[in-house]
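Ex. 9. Protein: Aldo/keto reductase.
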Amino acid sequence: MEDRALGSKGLTVGAQGLGCMGMSAFYGATDETESLATIHRALELGVTLLDTAESYGPFANEQLLGKALAGRREDAVLATKTGVEITDDGRVIGLNGRPEYVRRALERSLRHLGTDHVDLYYLHRIDPEVPIEDTVGALAELVAEGKIRHIGVCEASAGTIRRAHAVHPLTAVQTEYSLFERGIEQDGVRDTLRELGIGLVAYSPLGRGFLSGAITSPDDFTEDDWRRTDPRFQGENFHRNLDVVREVRRIASDKNVTPSQLALAWVQHQGAVAIPGTKRRRYLEENIAATEVTLSTEDIAAIDAVAPHGVVTGDRYAPELMATLNG
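Predicted structure tokens for Aldo/keto reductase:
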């Protein structure tokens, strides 16, 4: 797998990373044995960027990664996140970007991860009650102490990114980016990242699995799968979005690749590091094969024709979560 630089401060990662959230939360039943095997297989195949957050579980996902990386910490570029306040007993309080919380949360994450530093530490969501300069200032102090190596933010507006970057250089911005979600092409975020030399890390590059082509009915989800409440998987939205997936599948078939591989290859073609999430080795291996897929000018035009900006029907999240985006 080829390497890609994130930012301008020397962080290099594989062209595709691994989102680990679903191994512990939100996407139905979990299997620790298979999850550990999936992480280890990812490292064998050249994946280096492993993505987690204290809120995934809460804490369970960081603890899983700590177990997976025991004795091989140097093999991974470890990314985790703060900014969603969680009590030590796992109760989620709400957004919190105050410097004192950021510092306390990092110390807890280091314990769960079994390490003395985090390679990339993100502000998970922007706290509107705390100036971004204060939060990033606290993160910069943690960089100076050696407890984090690089700083990132998630789901931030172009203006917030500029303000944060002025305090301390950002290495990466993580945001949703896929054939279903191309908003950063229109709101100035992608252009800002390119101008400032900040890396783009794309989460949900498969549209939460929709673009894999494997989902054909809202009934495909178990009762404990949060996608049952995702607006894009509801009612008429579902069927309209499924029509788009059928077109993506057609183009993928013409190239003799899977829909997932086509969707991931498109994200990577845009210069982003995709972090598709999976908890099974067979899907991991399918996803990683996308790094070998080359898209021609004609391929890009065909994809853009069936999946332009705004093609998806339905909001990204339920209203209460939509309110936390683009801070």
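Check your answer against this statement. The chain has a mean pLDDT of 96.
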